[in-house]
Amino acid sequence: MWLRWGKSLKAVHKRRCFLNLKAVCPHQLHRRSIGFTDGVYDGLYPGHIHTTPMQKALLAVGSGVAALQDPYRHDMVAVLGETTGHLSLKNLRDKMRNDPEGYTILTERPRIKLSTLDLSQMKSLPGGSFGREYLRFLEDNNVTPDSRADVKFVDNEELAYVMQRYREVHDLLHTLLGMPTNMLGEVAVKWFEAAQTGLPMCALGAVLGPLRLNARRLQSLFTTLGPWALRNGWQSRCVLNIFYERRWEQSVEDLRKELNIEPPPVILSATNKKGQKKKDE
Fold first, then answer.
1. The pTM is what?
2. Is the per-residue pLDDT at 262 higher than 60?
3. Are 159 and 87 in contact (CB under 8 A)?
4. What's the rounded Cα separation, in Å, for the pair 30 and 225?
């Protein structure tokens, strides 16, 4: 009797898992984080979930609606980027292939995570160095590089890494651009990223992000920060072609010059995201 019950429950569990996979719920699928270097896996890369064009369209719509309701739902923003960015990712991949440093990154596949960062060494660097300022950014804004979800829905292993790399250098861009993680800072970075990468999710964030800003911050965005972000996104070198892990000792000023990025026109103070969110709305 107990054996029959056990077999029945096991069959129901398998059936539920199959139905859940067919439904492709983006929130549940992005809970588990799997790295590119894990040993045993099915699919194109660790954590890859194959989806049909119709499923990708449904994921894009669902995640887009969720991201609009709450821009801080990074899991939904991640799904939106993966299901809509194929052409832009190919363009970014080609830029990396045609650049010596970018090609090295594609070959070595570095990851930016707490487990790969030497925080004590970065803390010992002088003020103004890229590594020290990046660490300061993490501390001031109470963020961690481990918050970036792993790619799951990109159906090409190399393009999946390009998306992962873009995702993991996002906070480094905040450091280079001098932008905190409040809503105004995030929108300014999205304007830069939209011009730089062409990723649809960045363009959507650039267009809809200002709707959550108050009048004073809107004026700052449209008169100073916005034009500066767009101009630098268009004119700067591809930000994915920098092996940042080997540039910690370089000064932020020198790295900006190398990338052809102008200093920010205004200085925004770092503010806790949730607190700032209420103020901006």
1. 0.81
2. yes
3. no
4. 32
